[in-house]
Amino acid sequence: MNYANVVVHIPFTNAPVLPQQTDRDVAPLPRAWLDRSFTYDIPQVLSDAIRVGQLVWVPFGARRLQGVVVELTETTELDKTRPIEAIVYPEPLVTLQQIELAHWISNTYLAPLSDCIWLFLPPGIQEKVETLIELAPDANTAALTEKQRALVERVREAGALKTTQLAISQRNLINSLVARGVLVKRDNVRPARAKPRRVDTVKLIAPLETARAMIAGLDRKTSVLRHLAAANAPLTRAELVAQTRATDSTLQRLERDNLIERVPQLMRYQLSQKYLEELPSLPVAQARVCVYLREHGQS
């Protein structure tokens, strides 16, 4: 495929007004901005990797934004297109079925397709671009107005400022100072906020004989060792505290004695057999999580 249609999550505030429908039995035509996507050409280096449903970086006016690929085509009616810059994640984040559902939601409820597509993206997965303002290395600060000098001094003291940290009146000064070579703009990609959830687990690292020899008293340290030996597998801190009422200081002493070790592990979730058998009606947010787990297995 040579081209990709990409949905970019931006607000559409100027929807075109369509002619009035004369036949009352005919459904109104969808507004032009509902299914709006943007066509980009696929660079040769990405031609074998690009897939529908992927999150990609694209140029959008003077900005650099992320969008979701919703369609691949061989041709376009446009005379000129811009290339996709990069693929954010190799695996698609949105399935074909979810894209079809997003189109249905968009047309049924007159919602922008971008809003509907973004319903299916995991929270915090999207990286964002922020514009930083810095002082140019060879900045000539002569002949500046009082307001321009105040802005330059603020940037000099901070080293770099986000445009969002500036008042609107100061933002209007930036372009003129950039044109004069006093300030420079730099795009910075803010990392995605989504991270694996980690929980502390506790496992026995002392020989079982040593542990069993100490399981004679009824103190909390002995109780911790007894439960770990009986479980013969790591327990979460919450499970261990519920069973032994051990405090952090107790666990720390056992760890210093090389009897236990606390190791972070990823928390995994999977659907219960009861859910799979009954398929209960759930709130929208909970239902999305269950659908994701059904499609991708435990997570």
Give the key terms:
299 residues, alpha+beta, GIY-YIG endonuclease, 4 domains, 10 helices, 12 strands, flat
Question: Biggest β-sheet: count, sense, barrel?
Answer: 6 strands, mixed
Query: So what's the CATH class of the largest domain?
Result: Alpha Beta
Number of DSSP helical runs: 10
Order of SSEs: EEEEEEHHEHEHEEHHEHHEHH
Percent helix, as a range, is 25-40%
Structural class: alpha+beta
Got a strand count? 12
Query: What would you say the CATH architecture of the largest domain is?
Result: 3-Layer(aba) Sandwich
Strand order of the largest sheet: 5-2-1-4-3-6
Percent of residues in β-strands = 15-25%
Query: Rg to the nearest angstrom?
Result: 29 Å
**N-to-C CA distance:** 33 Å
Low-confidence spans: pLDDT under 50, at least 5 residues?
14-29
Average predicted local confidence, pLDDT: 80
The CATH homologous superfamily of the largest domain is called: PriA, 3(prime) DNA-binding domain
Shape estimate: flat
Number of domains: 4
Within the CATH hierarchy, at the fold level, what is the topology of the largest domain?
GIY-YIG endonuclease
